Amino acid sequence: DQQVKQNSPSLSVQEGRISILNCDYTNSMFDYFLWYKKYPAEGPTFLISISSIKDKNEDGRFTVFLNKSAKHLSLHIVPSQPGDSAVYFCAASARGSNYKLTFGKGTLLTVNP
Amino acid sequence: EPEVTQTPSHQVTQMGQEVILRCVPISNHLYFYWYRQILGQKVEFLVSFYNNEISEKSEIFDDQFSVERPDGSNFTLKIRSTKLEDSAMYFCASSERAANEKLFFGSGTQLSVL
Fold this sequence. Notes:
The complex is a heterodimer.
Chain A: E1 4-5, E2 10-14, E3 19-25, E4 30-38, E5 45-51, E6 56-59, E7 62-67, E8 72-77, E9 86-94, E10 97-103, E11 107-112
Parallel strand pairs in A: 2-11
Antiparallel strand pairs in A: 1-3, 3-8, 4-5, 4-9, 6-7, 7-8, 9-10, 9-11
Chain B: E1 5-7, E2 10-13, E3 19-24, E4 31-37, E5 43-50, E6 53-57, E7 65-68, E8 75-79, E9 88-95, E10 104-105, E11 109-113
C-alpha cells in the first residue's frame, strides 16, 4: 500500500547545483503535503509544506511544486549545499484525517563538495 | 528551539516481554503521535492522541499496543507482548495543532526484539 511513492532511493548532486526530489501519490483525498529531512540518529525535521490549493511554495533555498492533475510534487533545493545531505521524506495528509501523515520511503540526497 | 525527548535511545528485549517507550513532547503542544520505521522501510503512522484519548490509529496499532499520558508531561507507548516484527525505530512526535501542520519528532527509540 504505497500511497506516497518516492521512486528514487538516492540522488547525488554537486554543491551549488540544483537538487530535485520527486514524489508521487495515489490518494486523491490528500490535500496537504510536507517534506521532512532526516539526518542519521535524529528524527525527521519539518522542511516545507504545501496545501492543495497552491501549486508552489517557496522558503529560501527550498521550493515545493505541486501538480495535482499528475498527483506529483517535487522539492527543489538551489543552490545545494553539503549540509543538505540527508534523507528526504515526502508526506501527505488527507481531508478528514488531520491526525495522520502518510510517508514515502525517502530519498537519500548526497551533495558533493 | 524546544524539542521532543525520547527515552531510552535503544531498547533490547526478549520476545513476549512488555516494553514501554517514553516521550516528553513539547510543552505547549496538544497533539501527540507515535510513528515507527522498520529498517529500510517507510515511516509508518501508529497512533495520534489528543485531549487524553486516541484520535486515530492505524491497523498496526492492535490490542498489543497502548498509549498513555500519565501526567502533564510524559507520553508513553506500551507494547504488551513484543514480537520479532516489532523491531523498529519508534518516533514520538507532537504538534501544536493537527498533523497537517508541522510535526516535531524526537530522535527515536531503536527497539530490538530478540
